[in-house]
Design brief:
The structure holds 2 protein chains of 2 kinds. Chain A is an alpha+beta fold. In chain A, 57% of the residues lie in helices and 13% in strands. In chain A, helix 1 packs across helix 8. Classes of the chains: A alpha+beta, B mainly alpha.
């Protein structure tokens, strides 16, 4: 435990320095030849905004850092998979970080701000115009192929999935040699027991909690480890991406309603124990609530992690923005402090997501006493 | 909301869902089941062991009590046996003493009897002997007394004197 904390602390100290080296792939064309020291404050601010935006969004290559004066990127490309009337597969190095139009099977694609657009050979984005039926206005839509690329976020998730599987497989195997925990089980077992005793059992109940344990444990460690990996200089912002949180919230929603018992539906559509006009009034509210709950789950994790990354990115940018060494030091200290807070937020958000998921499962599997409905 | 939608990537959503579900199914089979089973097993084992310890403790307590009872009984028995033995010994001693006394008395009595018999025999023999001696002496004396006339006369007178005195 102590070792893990020490490694995280070292990472927290180191990450600001390395993170800033992770320069934007866009918006540097005009500055590529001139050193950043000669930028006007407005340009500097624009660059910082781009930097923070870039760091918190997904990308098609795994950039480690960029040499600002030469405009050279260091990192490795990731595979691009597109569906556009047929499968297109090529490495993202073909885009040369958005400077070049990539050709695949006779189609042309361009990378702009992390999104792939369909273009002609010259690089002009193709558009499709349609007329809005109500207002009669023309709507111009840019053509985008379906993008199933292994982006940075997918790549990081894949790495973490392999890591989580490996470490828990090792934990599971350690029990074959005896019931006392050994190896990674020493650290992980108390957390597994915490999820069972403090999250699952109090919210779902002794009777039904077992069938939900697989999902609760997986979602807790998945979010927590991805959050933590996001704190490393390599990590990017996986849990602060709406696609991931939507996927998790959707699975929670599906499991909740797939396992819901009669009482759950009864409490939504025909709330027992209140007069019938109220029942009619309450039903639509309850139905909205069914969808608001997972939506809140999705937004909470997304907003918390994204906000954390934006704050950290801004603070790091501020370290470089000021030339006064006192200000630099102060912002460095503040960044360090925020990093520690973020480490807490990492586990807190994983806990809250798992807790609320367990709460929804609890309401779905709850069985009220038979006389409950009549007693009210 | 527009920004949220524009940021949403179907591809990313697809891969995240696939990866998460893959992790969920892999962990369910290869990790959570063995881990939770092992943890449950251990918890049960600990509960069982504690129960067993309590039981054993109670058993030891009863055994101890039984032992104490046994010891007490044994002691009482030993005391009784010693007492018995002592009594028997005393009895035997007394018996031996009385038998010895009786025997002694018997022996003394028979000894006395034989002594008396011997004595009587000796006395009768002595009497016979003495009678013999007396006859001898009387014969001799008579012979001396009757040797002269004077002496026969003296004796006769003396005998007459004795008869008068009687």
């Amino acid at each position: 435990m102590y070792k893990v904390v020490r490694i995280l602390l070292v990472l927290a100290v180191l990450s600001p320095a390395v993170l800033f080296a992770n320069e934007p792939e866009h918006g540097h064309d005009e500055h590529a030849t001139s050193p950043s020291a000669e930028l006007t404050p407005a340009e500097k601010r624009k660059q910082n905004t781009e930097y923070v935006k870039h760091h918190t969004s997904d990308s098609h290559d795994f950039g480690l850092f960029t040499n600002q004066s030469t405009g050279k990127h260091y990192g490795f490309p990731l595979p691009v998979i597109l569906w556009d009337e047929g499968l297109h597969f090529f490495m993202s190095s073909k885009f040369e970080h958005g400077h070049v139009v990539a050709e695949s099977k006779g189609n042309f694609y361009k990378l702009d701000h992390g999104k792939i657009y369909k273009t002609d050979a010259e690089g002009t984005i193709l558009t499709k115009t349609r007329i809005d039926k109500k207002s009669g206005e023309e709507i111009v839509a840019q053509l985008k192929p379906l993008d199933f690329s292994i982006t940075r976020n997918v790549f990081v998730t894949l790495l973490m999935v392999i890591f989580i599987f490996f470490i828990f497989r090792k934990t599971a195997k350690s029990y074959q040699s005896g019931l006392a925990p050994s190896g990674p089980a020493k650290f992980l077992e108390p957390i597994v027991i915490f999820v069972r005793d403090e999250i699952a059992i109090p919210n779902i109940g002794e009777k039904h909690y077992k069938k939900y344990m697989n999902y609760l444990l997986t979602v807790f460690f998945f979010i927590w480890f991805l959050n933590l990996f996001g704190m490393t200089p390599l990590g990017g912002n996986v849990t602060g991406n709406i696609a991931l949180t939507f996927a998790l919230a959707m699975i929670t929603f599906i499991i909740t309603h797939a396992t819901a018992k009669k009482d759950y539906w009864l409490h939504i559509f025909w709330m027992p124990g209140i007069p019938w006009p109220m029942k009619i009034l309450l039903a639509p509210i309850e139905v909205i609530g069914v969808f608001v709950k997972p939506f809140a789950l999705m937004i909470r994790l997304y907003a918390n992690m994204l906000a954390g990354h934006i704050v950290l990115g801004s603070l790091i940018a501020a370290v470089y923005y000021f030339s006064n060494y006192g200000a630099k030091g102060a912002f460095l200290g503040l960044t360090f402090f925020m990093n520690i807070i973020e480490l807490l937020v990492c586990v807190l958000q994983a806990y809250i997501f798992t807790m609320l998921t367990a709460l929804y499962f609890g309401s779905a599997s709850a069985e009220h006493e038979h006389d409950h409905a009549e007693a009210h | 909301m527009d920004k949220l939608l524009s940021e949403f990537s179907i591809g990313l959503f697809f891969w995240q869902t696939v990866l998460f579900l893959a992790l969920l199914f892999l962990l369910r089979k290869y990790a959570w089941k063995p881990i939770l089973n092992a943890v449950n097993e251990r918890e049960e084992k600990i509960a069982d062991s504690l129960e067993l310890a309590d039981k054993t403790k109670a058993e030891i307590e009863t055994l101890k009590a039984q032992n104490a009872d046994l010891l007490k009984e044994a002691r009482a028995e030993r005391d009784a046996m010693i007492k018995d033995a002592k009594a028997t010994a005393t009895q035997m001693k007394e018996d031996a003493k009385s038998i010895a006394k009786e025997e002694g008395n018997k022996m003394i009595a028979s000894a006395k009897k034989s002594i008396n018999a011997e004595k009587a025999a000796a006395i009768s023999e002595l009497k016979t002997e003495v009678a013999g001696f007396a006859l001898d002496i009387a014969e001799k004396v008579v012979r001396v007394e009757l040797a002269s006339d004077a002496k026969q006369k003296e004796l006769a007178e003396k005998l007459v004197e004795d008869i008068n005195l009687n």
